[in-house]
Recover the amino acids of this structure.
């Protein structure tokens, strides 16, 4: 095994105009926010690939859009009912023309979209792939942000 140092590459697609891709991906995140705020498990799962891998906010790893839908149905009817959020995209990058990495921050809000949390309560990393002209979430991992006391 060689221990020679190498320079890490910058892996970024710069050959494609991603304006339309960014708009489509922004809609994926908006769909997730709407799904959460309207307790809609079908919409919550609508942008996940059938074989997606999802780490949720309570540390459970789910496999597939149907598992996301089932877990969302339980959570949105249970401990998440009457909870509201605002999702803001912190960053979108494109390592490849058909691949996107999205960092999202989440803050609790009131039903009328007034912020409860000034600082993010959670961050999430989404991995999306473009398949047949549509962006699909193939992986998402949520990480709660500890509150400073």
């Amino acid at each position: 095994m060689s221990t020679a140092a190498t320079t890490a590459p910058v892996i970024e697609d710069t050959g494609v105009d991603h304006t339309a891709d960014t708009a489509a991906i922004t809609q994926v995140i908006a769909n997730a926010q709407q799904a959460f705020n309207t307790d809609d498990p079908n919409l919550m799962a609508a942008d996940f690939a059938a074989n997606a891998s999802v780490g949720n906010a309570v540390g459970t790893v789910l496999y597939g859009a149907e598992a996301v839908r089932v877990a969302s149905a339980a959570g949105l009817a249970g401990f998440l009912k009457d909870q509201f959020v605002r999702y803001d995209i912190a960053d979108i990058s494109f390592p490849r023309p058909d691949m996107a990495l999205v960092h999202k921050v989440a803050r609790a809000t009131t039903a009328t979209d007034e912020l409860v949390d000034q600082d993010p309560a959670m961050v999430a990393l989404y991995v999306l792939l473009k398949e047949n002209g549509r962006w699909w979430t193939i992986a998402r991992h949520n990480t709660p942000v500890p509150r400073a006391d």
User: Anything to note?
Assistant: The longest strand covers residues 84-96. The helical segments are 19-37, 41-45, 65-77. The mean pLDDT is 94. The longest helix spans residues 19-37.
